[in-house]
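Morning. Coffee machine broken again, so started the prediction first thing and wrote up yesterday's gels while waiting. Chain of 345 residues, entered below exactly as on the submission form.
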Amino acid sequence: MSTEDFNYDLPEELIAQTPLKTRSSSKLLVMDRDTGELEHRYFEDITEYLHKGDVLVLNETKVIPARLIGTKEETQATIELLLLKELGDDTWECLSRPFKRLHVGTNITFGNGLLVATVTKKKESGMVEVKFSYKGIFLEILDQLGEMPLPPYIHEKLEEKDRYQTVYARVTGSAAAPTAGLHFTEELLKKLENQGVEIVKVLLHVGLGTFRPVEVEDVTKHEMHSEFYQMSKEAADALNLAKKEKRRIIAVGTTSTRVLETVMQKYHEFRECEGNTNIFIYPGYKFLAIDCLITNFHLPKSTLVMLVSAFSKKEFIFHAYEEAIKRHYRFFSFGDAMFIERKTL
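Came back before lunch.
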């Protein structure tokens, strides 16, 4: 299976640079998972497709302002760090740029010394481990000095930081937003609850595993970077009951999907647990946990477009993308949404 098989041409003007004024006013492409049949709607119409007894699974991770720009103490060269994973004891795994200028023992200062990072380990592909020193509360300093880690294809400045957070974001630690969830408003979630849709929350802190490009020719040779996940007993009990009663489990986003599939693959049931997952889902994968998927439109040749291609038929997904391009849907993080639906179990 070639990485090139997941490529497609996208006009640059369809890459959404800013969020819409109203979250739920984005377009919604509804696709039947089994037939590939398409409907063109708006996201607020999702209430017509979710029914009493359905379980909607949200990832409640909260993005931290994980992009730090500082100076190398020895030379005053500009260094950029993207915080990816907290390792404990004020140590973080980071993506660094420029990587070649760093070595073990290098000090990088931010905010005139308000925060200092010391490189403790150099890894591969631009990855380093750093230990931070500071006075005060780390997340407060990060909020002061850091920037929201918007993807490189977004060139516009984000006017409101909260627009790169879901309305239900609660647990800090993510290096990127679970973007399928950006379309929900509190009012829309309340409306779904009033319809009898059960809302369950899980956690996956988005790191390099989700957005790292696939650089190998053979898809099966790609190695995913691990990301922290967590499932509560309350969530596990609700999901197990839904499975038993043959009710639909609807994942919001590829991150929620990866939590649910990780747990189900590991235990053959949902269970209270936490850990790190490097699950890589591509065509040929057998889904055990989810029945429907709400997702955005993903980058060519990415692990995300591979996951959605595995969830239905690849030809259905790529036909849907062609239709979305023809109808000028907005793509990627701040773009429009897709609902891949299985109507009956």
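The mean pLDDT is 95. Going to sketch it on the whiteboard this afternoon.
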